[in-house]
């Protein structure tokens, strides 16, 4: 009896295959695991204070930052398309999350985070991750510098120990105005704690680069404040003792009204999360020489956001600083990211009561250092000197991010970057006379034939400029030849311009010939109606001479 072979389920597309699966297939040994344990521990030490600091700056309790790191960070590494990506709460989300909490509350934030997870999965499933990576460099620099300013502004209250009469405004100009009015409430003790934290972070980094400077600075300052009885606000005095366990999974009731209120924030979280996570993955690729899978990464980010929301967390994305730390610490695989989340869970189980002693001014000092490091000051000034186009894009993006809205800054910056690129590409396109229609000619040249060679892409940006030149030349010859050998592509506007040109040449009793066209260019021209008998597409100039002899 012949045994029917068992049908195997189809394997997932390599484009969506988690890097963890790839690593395990390649072979994963004890030495790799030891390296990942060390890297995961190193990243966890960095992530622990950062997670709480970002959560507090975002207007939520520090425990929600830990939930986000534990659940979101684990899922990003387990399912993602990068070997080294570390997921968790990011400073870039501070202004969006705080605005969301102020307008629709914690439950609205959790619902918006869950919805953004659904959107991210859809973006990845539709394979849009490839396009998100095309954001121009000046946009990312302006965006990052703007985020750095926003993060620093969000910490001024705790940095100086100010007491406000009401909630702190989200809009930066109004925020600065309110903080200035409260300057008489500044606390010398809080400012001293913040300065001590900054000095320790910078000093340890310079003297002992391999030591965990962020955690050590927070621990030392917290211990000093507790021992000396310095009168500053702490996590315990504002939020109480942190929980030791993850909460039971739950979600707010998604009523139509709640969904509509959360939807604008969910869209902003999705756009910013996709950009931030893929930018972080690209940084990891540059440091490691590996290649991430964009769409798999976005799907994982989506699942991580849904998972974090279910456990009371908020926005999860790839974090550049922690990912870079992971690579530098010798990570071999996504296992290090999964372990980093488990180490943070272990810290929460064991040391949650100790977190109550951490001064808020110390966390503000930590975030001030983070803001300074992420500002990309040299890159910003380099782009300011590079060209007027790049300077315009980086400045406009920066100003919109700081004074208007993160999403608006990205969208407008991307549009401006596209316009600058179009202008440069149109200027790169040229028309070169290979055989002039009048004046001196080489001996034996056909006086009724003119040959012009195009250089560069012939698209809508170049069509308007070069079309005038070609249209003027078309008044002369009986045979008008255009050499396409150096044209990589033609869009519909460029093809339309040649259709009009062919009609003009025909009215003068001539014929338009295209030579040296690449197969894909010829196909695009034909789709737009540029084909025989209106236009003759021939391989070379000799073929044109033969065709003219028979015409």
From TrEMBL:
Keywords: Membrane, Transmembrane, Transmembrane helix. The lineage of its organism: Bacteria, Pseudomonadati, Pseudomonadota, Alphaproteobacteria, Rhodobacterales. PROSITE patterns: STAS. It holds the Pfam family Sulfate_transp. Residues 447-551 form the STAS domain. It is found in: Membrane. CDD domains: STAS_SulP_like_sulfate_transporter. This is SulP family inorganic anion transporter. It is a multi-pass membrane protein. The keyword Transmembrane helix applies. GO terms for biological process: transmembrane transport. Its main location: membrane. The keyword RNA-binding does not apply. Gene3D superfamilies: STAS domain (3.30.750.24). The chain crosses the membrane at residues 37-58, 65-86, 92-122, 134-154, 184-202, 214-239, 259-284, 342-372, 392-422. GO terms for cellular component: membrane.
């Amino acid at each position: 009896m012949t045994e029917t072979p068992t049908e195997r389920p189809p394997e997932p597309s390599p484009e969506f295959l988690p890097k963890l699966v790839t690593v395990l297939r390649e072979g994963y040994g004890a030495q790799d695991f030891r390296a990942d344990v060390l890297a995961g521990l190193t990243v966890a030490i960095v992530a622990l204070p950062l997670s709480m600091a970002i959560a507090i700056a975002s207007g939520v309790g520090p425990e929600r930052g830990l939930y986000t790191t534990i659940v979101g960070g684990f899922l990003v590494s387990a399912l993602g398309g990068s070997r080294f990506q570390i997921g968790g709460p990011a400073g870039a989300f501070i202004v969006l999350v705080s605005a969301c909490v102020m307008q629709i509350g914690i439950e609205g934030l959790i619902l918006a985070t869950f919805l953004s997870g659904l959107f991210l999965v859809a973006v990845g499933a539709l394979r849009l991750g490839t396009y998100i990576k095309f954001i121009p460099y000046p946009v990312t620099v302006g965006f990052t510098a703007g985020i750095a300013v926003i993060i620093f502004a969000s910490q001024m209250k705790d940095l100086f120990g100010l007491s406000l009469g009401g909630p702190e405004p989200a809009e930066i100009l109004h925020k600065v105005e309110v903080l200035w009015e409260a300057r008489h409430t500044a606390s010398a003790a809080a400012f001293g704690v913040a300065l001590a934290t900054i000095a320790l972070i910078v000093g340890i980094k310079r003297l002992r680069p391999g030591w965990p400077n962020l955690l050590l600075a927070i621990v030392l300052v917290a211990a000093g404040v507790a021992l000396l009885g310095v009168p500053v606000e702490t996590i315990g005095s504002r939020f109480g003792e942190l929980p030791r366990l993850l909460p039971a999974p739950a979600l707010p009731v998604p009523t139509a009204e709640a969904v509509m209120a959360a939807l604008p924030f969910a869209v902003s979280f999705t756009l910013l999360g996709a950009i931030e996570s893929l930018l972080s993955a690209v940084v990891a690729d540059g440091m490691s020489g590996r290649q991430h899978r964009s769409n798999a990464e976005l799907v994982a980010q989506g699942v991580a956001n849904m998972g974090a929301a279910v456990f009371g967390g908020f926005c999860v994305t790839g974090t550049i600083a922690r990912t870079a730390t992971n690579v530098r610490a010798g990570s071999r695989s996504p296992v290090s990211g999964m372990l980093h989340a488990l180490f943070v869970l272990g810290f929460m189980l064991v040391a949650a009561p100790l977190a109550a002693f951490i001064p808020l001014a110390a966390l503000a000092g930590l975030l001030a250092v983070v803001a300074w490091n992420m500002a990309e000051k040299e890159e910003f000034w380099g782009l300011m000197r590079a060209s007027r186009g790049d300077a315009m894009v980086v400045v406009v993006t920066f100003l919109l991010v700081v004074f208007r809205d993160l999403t608006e800054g990205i969208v407008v910056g991307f549009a401006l970057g596209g316009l600058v690129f179009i202008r440069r590409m149109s200027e790169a396109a040229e028309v070169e006379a290979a055989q002039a229609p009048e004046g001196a000619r080489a001996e034996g040249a056909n006086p009724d034939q003119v040959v012009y060679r195009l250089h560069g892409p012939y698209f809508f940006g170049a069509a308007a400029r070069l079309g005038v030149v070609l249209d003027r030349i078309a008044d002369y010859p009986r045979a008008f030849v255009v050499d396409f050998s150096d044209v990589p592509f033609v869009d519909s506007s460029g093809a339309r311009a040649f259709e009009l040109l062919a009609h003009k040449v025909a009215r003068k009793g001539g014929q338009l010939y295209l030579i040296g066209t690449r197969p894909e260019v010829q196909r695009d021209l034909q789709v737009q109606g540029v084909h025989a008998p209106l236009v003759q597409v021939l391989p070379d100039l000799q073929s044109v001479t033969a065709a003219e002899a028979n015409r």
